[in-house]
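Quiz preparation item.
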């Protein structure tokens, strides 16, 4: 039987309308949103959306909305303050013992609440070879760095041919003890987790793959096979989510999400308070409500299923645990 191609990614309002995910009358209103922020809804993710449900939690995360162009008080273009902590292009060094490496700024799907929406997009591209060399040289010359976290963009959008040598170069730095990869690929475009890509993750040093997902339904389709391949490659799987109004702001939704992660061999790691990026206020849940939700999970899930509820501090001060005294970092 001939192989079928994966469904195409929807990248503009007209394509969303043609797929029945927005009404045709909404195309013109969404044109200014598309001009400012990238749109990408992969076929596998589009198939999970119920067009008849105006409150569909998958659609809410990925289908653009005119409200994205309204900046509420307190929202900032760089709410995590990456820029002041960038010693060389592609590196963010906010914590003494670890650093982010952003080899590309392309994602398989563009979240409407993303704090990097101003930077990511299909045209954002890769670091050049010279820029990547400079970033790795900086890591090698900074012995305090024990953990390198690949993010972006989505590092698993790199081909196995690019990703394998990159991870090997990082693992060869003597003082780097741990590598971590943050990704949406296993749930958004699971067909990209090929045997070759999984093999590129096999390292002597510990490698953690942090899977970003916010609703249990995101794990339907091919996610199970993709995650099984990652586990088979020796990756340790963690889960990272954002607390989002209309997506997972109920005890039942959070419980389903955490249980689904555990069934796929993923330890729920962080539940993030929403970063105040421009045009994201419709997703905001108060910290007081978040604390009640997380507290309610204590009686429903074992310790394995409990994520740590965190937020970013202003000015790039790093993550803190919501509800703990100031100075208690995550």
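Solution:
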């Amino acid at each position: 039987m001939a192989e079928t191609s994966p469904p195409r990614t929807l990248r503009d309002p007209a394509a969303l309308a043609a797929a029945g995910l927005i009404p045709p009358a909404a195309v013109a209103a969404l044109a200014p949103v598309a001009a400012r922020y990238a749109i990408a809804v992969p076929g596998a993710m589009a198939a999970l959306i119920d067009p008849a449900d105006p409150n569909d939690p998958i659609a809410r995360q990925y289908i653009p909305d005119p409200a994205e162009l309204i900046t509420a008080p307190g929202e900032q273009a760089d709410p995590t303050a990456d820029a002041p902590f960038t010693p060389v292009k592609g590196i963010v060094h906010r914590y003494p013992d670890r650093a982010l490496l952003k080899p590309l700024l392309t994602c398989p799907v563009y979240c409407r609440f993303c704090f990097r929406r101003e930077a990511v997009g299909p045209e954002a591209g890769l670091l050049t070879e010279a820029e990547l060399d400079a970033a790795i040289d900086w890591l090698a010359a900074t012995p305090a760095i024990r953990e390198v976290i690949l993010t972006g963009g989505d590092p698993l959008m790199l081909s196995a041919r690019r990703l394998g040598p990159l991870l090997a170069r990082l693992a060869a730095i003597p003082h780097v003890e741990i590598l971590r990869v943050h990704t949406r690929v296993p749930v958004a475009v699971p067909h990209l987790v090929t045997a070759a890509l999984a093999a590129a993750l096999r390292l002597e040093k510990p490698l953690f793959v942090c899977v970003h997902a916010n609703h249990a339904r995101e794990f339907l389709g091919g996610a199970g096979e993709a995650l099984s391949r990652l586990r088979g490659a020796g990756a340790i799987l963690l889960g990272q989510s954002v607390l989002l109004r209309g997506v997972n702001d109920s005890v039942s939704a959070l419980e389903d999400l955490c249980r689904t992660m555990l069934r796929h061999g993923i330890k729920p790691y962080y539940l993030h308070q929403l970063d105040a990026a421009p045009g994201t206020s419709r997703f905001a849940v108060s910290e007081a409500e978040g604390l009640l939700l997380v507290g309610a999970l204590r009686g429903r899930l074992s310790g394995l299923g409990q994520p740590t509820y965190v937020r970013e501090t202003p000015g790039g001060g790093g993550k803190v645990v919501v509800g703990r005294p100031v100075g208690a970092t995550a």
